[in-house]
Amino acid sequence: MIEIEEYILPGNAACQGCPSTMCLRIVLKALKGKAVLVVPASCTSVYMGAYPNTAIKVPVFNCAFASAAATATGIKAALDFYNEDCEVVVWAGDGGTYDIGLQALSGAAERGENMIYICYNNEMYSNTGIQRSGATPYGAWTNTTVSGKREHRKDISEILLSHNIPYLATASAGYLRDLYKKVKRALKFEGFRYIEILAPCPPGWKFPMNKTVEIGKLAVESGMWILYEAINGRIRLTGISKLIAEGKKKMRDLRDYLKAQGRFANISEEDLAEIERYRNKRWKKLLDSNSKLVD
Amino acid sequence: MYKVLTGNEAAAYAAMNCKVRFVAAYPITPATSVVEMLSRFIDEGRMKAKFVHVESEHSAMAACIGASAGGLRVFTATSSQGLAYMHEMLHWAANARTPVVMTVANRALAPGWNIWADQSDSLSQRDTGWLQFYCGNVQEIYDTIAMAYRIAESKEVMLPAMVCYDGFVLSHVASPVEVPPLNGFIDEYEPQWRISIDNPFTHGNVCSPEYYFSLRKSVHKAHEKALKIIPKIEQEFFECTGRYTTLLYDTYKIEDAKRVIVAMGAIAMEAKIAVDILRKRGEKVGLLRLRSFRPFPVKSLRSILVDKEVCVIDRNLIPGVGGVLHQEITASLKKDVDSLILGVGGADVTAEMIAKNVGRLILEVGR
Ligand SMILES: Cc1ncc(C[n+]2csc(CCOP(=O)(O)OP(=O)(O)O)c2C)c(N)n1
Ligand code: SF4
User: Fold this and answer.
1) Which of A130, B32, B273, B359 has its CA 20 to 30 A from that of A77?
2) pTM of the model
3) Which fold would CATH assign to domain A19-288?
4) Domain total for chain B?
5) pLDDT level of residue A293 (50, 70, 90 thresholds)
6) Residues B48 and B185 in one domain
7) Burial track B19-34 (b if 16+ CB lie within 10 A, e otherwise)
8) Atom 7 (ligand 2) nearest CA
């Protein structure tokens, strides 16, 4: 049963079909509102609304773009001092996570700071008007990769896993119940916990605003986004990704996913083959990395 | 109770006795031993605080801001490159109204790696909104940190404060200092506001020009209010410790002086001896040792210096400008002021050197 209470109010400044508000809503429900949010520069810092109003019903501290995990470190120390019973949750975009915020993120993860760091990954910088990030996939158009990005995204989950954190999970805006469950699971652990949500963004990815959930599902069904959890470093696939790994579900044609988005409109056959190679390589790596991927 | 301490050690004692509850640290010469000592105090159970060795100065200040917003009294220490690396967060701390106190062991900026005394690191953070105090000896470091917390945390001010002292010249030179307990002067921190799950609010969200301007004006006004409360804090500090330590400025042989030297930091202490040297030669010279660069006591400076010839000594050289202090004093007095740039990049500055240079200026104007 998903919590009924709402912690993010309707009528906020996000685009229609925004994956970030959709997922934050679910995350705050899973946390039962018992969280202090730390938000670096991103779409979230805008859509939460302008002073003296706010669309978010839990305490929110806005911080500098590069500083989320460090700011959260300080806040958590203070909340512990005052014996406050709540989580500190970073809610950051992929720019604030993969790129400018990586140093602070890695530092906090290595120190085992007691927080939940959630990255809503819309695979680009949206706030500043759609530029590439370290999470932008090969071939995707952005305003700084106008003929398609020539590099693959970095695998930040692998980076985080190498920090020996107790809990890591990937999720997708296509599967909100799965996200809810994963946040609940994260609450069972202490220390540094990382959750990354694939967040298909209508204006950035160029698809109609009523298709956010659909694209979030397509990403997983086509194997471009893999759902898994890593508990104390032990990886296990979840949801549709698990079914695909078990051979219970066929992986969908990559084209179904790419064609649904305007940002891939101009990719060549070679690009397509390159994206497919990358996808297959990641799957193989994940499956090889642990013989007991599925349990 | 006297102890023989270096400037950095005195800073650590001050942070402990000020009941700091959170330290975020990143090492840099010549500030490092401050946080090393704090780490030891905490380890030995002499100080009840959380110590976080973060991964950069940007993060050190971010963590301090977070902890301060969460209601803790916080402390960090840095220098030079570290302070420059914090720049974004320095603005943040001021606008967020988090009363962080930080010591800065003044050091030159690279390239041309130079770890020695030079005030261009803190002076180039002049416009961040921080209060800035400059110390002339080790005792002043201890006393200034204590008073800085009181001013930073006072309801009318609520701003971060930097306590600056010359790298090595003060940070690493030991002298006997009094380190009295500060109970009664500075007690357990009671924040004006703090992040709490029971009192949800959004801090630092999008702000219209109207609100933003009023925020900036309130930070500006807080500097004026800081000026007003400093004498009261000095007095309270005296009542608690029996020692009067001036925080705004100090004057020496100024009444009958024709010419007044204005300086900050360790050089200003040498300048005092230079005044005596010059007076022996019959020159009517005095000294104004500025302790509080921000808030800037502009009205007092004007009234003291209005009919004097003024010579400013700067331990910094800002390209295209000259000395920062010279620029500030010139702007406040609205008249020509002589400038001496001495000790940049850690060059030794002696009283004789100051006397010689000031003497030369006196000759140049035909006296
Ligand atoms: C130091 C710094 N550099 C640049 C910016 C401008 N900026 C604000 S948000 C943003 C992009 C955020 O991207 P992401 O983290 O992916 O979040 P999203 O906008 O997609 O929600 C940038 C570049 C800034 N605020 N601070
Ligand atoms: S640009 Fe994308 S992530 Fe940002 S508010 Fe709009 S839909 Fe949400």
Assistant:
1) B32
2) 0.97
3) Rossmann fold (3.40.50)
4) 2
5) low
6) yes
7) bbbbbbbbbbbbbbbb
8) A18
